[in-house]
Amino acid sequence: MAAEFLGECMRLDKYLKVSRIIKRRTVANEACDAGKIEVNGKVQRASYDVKIGDKITVNMGSASRTYQVVEVSEHALKEDAAKMYKMI
What we know:
Helices cover 23% and strands 28% of the residues. It is built from three helices and seven strands, in the order H-E-H-H-E-E-E-E-E-E. The strands form two sheets. Strands 3-2-5-6-7 form a five-stranded antiparallel sheet, with no helix packed on it. A hairpin with a 2-residue loop joins strand 5 (55-60) and strand 6. The longest helix has 9 residues, at 25-33. The protein is globular and about 30 Å long.
């Protein structure tokens, strides 16, 4: 996949951690395994490749939040992490 080489794709669990939607990658991985993470309306595994434009829904407890992927970056400072997505 050409987009992978351009850095426009990232594993779902890693994206959730780098963007700080979920604090730890292991917690993100467990949430994916438990079926609490949906991408574009479908439950996805931690290995799913997140792309710009994807809509990620996180169902934790009674709360459900949806985010749209705006940027995919290997590293993000705490101040810049929120720029990787926008809440819908």
